[in-house]
Here is the input.
Amino acid sequence: MSEKTFRRAESDEGEVVLATITSAFGCEAGTPRYEHLREDVENHLDEHYVYTVNGAVVGALHVRVEEIQVGASIVTKGDVGEVGILAERHGQGLGTEMMEAVVKTLREDGLHLSRLGGYRRFYERFGWVPFPRGYIDFALSGLTSRGGFTDPVSFLDRPDEDKKIRPYDGTRDKTVCGNLYRAFNRERTGALPERRFGEKSDDPWSIVYEEDGRVIAYLLASEKPPPYTRFTTAVSIQGAAADPDRIEALGEVIRYTLRRAKMVGAESVSARLPLDSALYDLYRDSSAGFIVTQWQSSEGGNMLQVLNPRLLMEAVRPTIQTRLEDACRDPGQLAIRVHGETVGVEWGGGTAVIADPKGETIDLSQEGFCRLLLGLTSVDQVVREPSRERDLLGAMFPVQGTATGVWG
Here is the structure.
């Protein structure tokens, strides 16, 4: 009988991990895909796992652990990627065994969620479910105005504001940009607690807004070569933030970037900006129009899994308690069932307790639960039947101005 193990890659296994993953994907040395995988293994070998049969590595994958804010609380997420079995071992069920092993490991490690991008028919078998990706989609063409067309280049031209915008300089800007990120995303559901900013200073699409010698906003974007798709646009925005007391500066760096994007031929710009109704006036006034997008994939795409419902609820309990206090909710209790586990919540009017389930149970799909957790959907869109328990659940997880990019 074969001896099979799933474990973290060891420090001297970089070459075998790379060989395994590139074999699975059919990547030849020297190709862009190969170089991307090589850099990933070299820089993050400690985040890779291997699957062995009788001591020989036959599979490998990457797990990046990230934290996501839910209000003032933190939940953990394991991103699974670069899943590969040696080409000559395909069809032997090893991929299934490796995925079962990684789910077991992530759950035992106490992670709350897991995310991956892949084929639905394969990964649903191991507990992941389709989940949308969030974007702000800025249109740059076909914009009607009294039967004509709006030209974004002239419409978004503000020379006096452009004088305050310059390229990002890592040596002097990385600290202040980190501070801006934290201030802008303070207790913002869906955001990372921290974001690192590098020393790199030669990207013309990374900019800051500086006034009287003080940086008060930044925007990070990139220009990509063709081919382009609905969400792989010529120019995309990876993130932006501003001093909350000078939020209009965020609009200026968005406007500046959209105008430049049109000048290099972009038809639209996909942006990882918050799905926050409090910012929609700013987005509108800084653009030629935008669409709030939650992109739903069919055959393959973004997927989430709730690994440990009770541990997750315990992690967000302080935020639940604060929200219930702010909503002046009467005492009550409910139980929610997610991914086969039932968790109770007791609210005594001053303290929220995660407890054994009592009373009526609300069944939630993983997608529905994650939509509530991330503040993307009101409770009546997930739970149809009105009840006191539904009202309590809605107060626990109200709609939020949610950040994008981390969960999908």
About this structure: The radius of gyration is 23 Å. The chain has three domains: 4-129+299-303, 134-295, 308-396. The CA atoms of residues 338 and 366 lie 6 Å apart. The longest strand covers residues 56-70.
